[in-house]
Design goal:
CATH architecture of the largest domain: Up-down Bundle
Strand content: under 5%
Number of helices: 18
CATH topology of the largest domain: Growth Hormone, Chain: A
Largest sheet: none
Radius of gyration: 22 Å
Order of helices and strands: HHHHHHHHHHHHHHHHHH
CATH class of the largest domain: Mainly Alpha
């Protein structure tokens, strides 16, 4: 036999593109939509409320993960969801120039969000089934890197494309329509590529629908065992409150940068915001995450939990300075955003490691998925009211409130059960 088929099934041919396809819809729904609606002139109240609701598919994702297991193969779910994501992006592109574009595009973003969350379930499951243990260890860094690249492409390059088109045509709706149409074509390409490039893993078989009642009972038992964990109330409060302040900041950070100075913002262009968050911000975020993982590996999570709590929260204060000073220096603004993003990347490491700690034991895959649902919930609800609050008290007071809103996470940390050596490499 020719060695061409084996080359076509090499993990290098599908893992990078699979995790590009996983990261792009998430960043478009969660971040790019905020920038687009700000350009459309939607109020901060409406932007924060309705885009926060888009977190819901990731909140409830664990509830329909059994459907992916029972109906069809994960391979088929992957490329089908990618085609549907392309269709959702095409819907955003077609409705962006229309009257009532906010309502129409929001409906398609909802479609995007549910398809993207379903794609996450299938992709992460297929990664385990379609690779050997050795490949899983080797490619874990590769998948993380390409997820980051997807974030840069969505939050940076896509936003810069829309900003450039807006500057040249003077039509913000047309600019975003073209940008979303380009991404829709990319996702159709992803779907077609993965239809043929994904390997046919022997373990990737559809479930037996006749076992649905038994499967449902097992599924409910798995959920029940999660909520019977020791000190579960403290653990849930930690998952919900660790980013209570950050969840409000993240919804208003880009509107603040885009708003005119007369409205209390910094008056940056869409292209400038895309560059700041898609390049400088992502680089600082990545470096913070790498450093966070390194120090925990050396000294354990217990030694670094409190420094990471301060790291993720205190840099938010740079926005208080920016709101009061309203500097015109772009390098200074980039530096402030980089400081906040570096602190977030460093401090978020503790959160991710503690989710692994919570999920340890029986049913750890399902329990980790439940943790991610509560993680999304911790971003969804605080983000909903952030726009309304900012509209009523202004940016300087709002960013001061964000700092006060970090206090609950420190309070919960006092009661958090944690082994001294958790996260630290074995001394053997």
């Amino acid at each position: 036999m020719s060695d061409a088929p084996s080359r076509a099934r090499s993990p290098w041919t599908w893992i990078p593109t699979l995790y590009l396809a996983e990261g792009l819809p998430y960043v478009v729904v969660m971040t790019v939509s905020v920038i687009m609606y700000k350009g459309f002139g939607i109020s901060n109240t409406d932007i924060a409320l309705w885009t926060s609701w888009l977190y819901l598919p990731w909140v409830v994702k664990p509830l329909w993960s059994p459907v992916v297991d029972l109906l069809g193969t994960r391979r088929r779910w992957i490329w089908a969801m990618q085609l549907l994501v392309g269709g959702g992006l095409a819907g955003v592109a077609l409705t962006a120039p229309l009257p009532h574009c906010f309502q129409w595009t929001l409906a398609f973003f909802w479609l995007l969000a549910f398809n993207s969350a379903t794609h996450d379930i299938a992709a992460d499951g297929f990664y385990i089934l379609g690779t050997t243990e050795e490949q899983q260890s080797f490619f874990v860094g590769v998948r993380s890197m390409f997820y980051r690249i997807a974030t840069i492409a969505g939050q940076g390059l896509l936003v810069m494309l829309a900003g450039t088109l807006q500057a040249r045509t003077g039509n913000v709706h047309f600019a975003w329509s073209v940008a979303m149409a380009v991404l829709a074509v990319v996702f159709v390409g992803f779907g077609v590529w993965h239809r043929f490039a994904l390997p046919h893993a022997a373990a990737d078989q559809p479930g037996d629908a006749r076992r649905a009642p038994e499967f449902t009972r097992e599924f409910l038992a798995t959920f029940g065992s999660f909520f019977r964990k020791p000190r579960i109330l403290v653990l849930l409060l930690f998952l919900l409150l660790y980013r209570f302040g950050e969840a409000q900041l993240v919804k208003m950070a880009t509107p603040f940068l885009l708003d005119p100075r007369a409205a209390g913002g910094l008056g940056l262009t869409t292209t400038q915001v895309g560059f700041i968050y898609g390049t400088v911000g992502i680089l600082a975020l990545t470096l913070g995450g790498i450093l966070g993982g390194w120090v925990i590996a050396r000294h354990g999570l217990k030694a670094w939990l409190w420094p990471m709590l301060f790291a993720i929260h205190l840099p938010d204060a740079v926005f208080i300075y920016l709101a009061h000073a309203q500097p015109t220096s772009l390098p200074l603004i980039q530096l402030c955003v980089a400081v906040e993003q570096f602190g977030y990347g460093f401090g978020f490491t503790a959160y991710l490691l503690y989710m692994i700690r919570i999920a340890r034991g029986e049913h750890q895959t399902a329990h980790y998925a439940i943790c991610t649902g509560f993680m999304a919930m911790g971003m969804m609800f605080p983000g909903m009211w952030s726009g309304w609050l900012q509209d009523h008290i202004g940016y300087p007071r709002f960013f001061s409130w964000v700092i006060l809103a970090t206090i609950p996470s420190f309070a919960v940390a006092w009661w958090l059960p944690l082994e001294a050596d958790f996260g630290r490499k074995s001394a053997r």
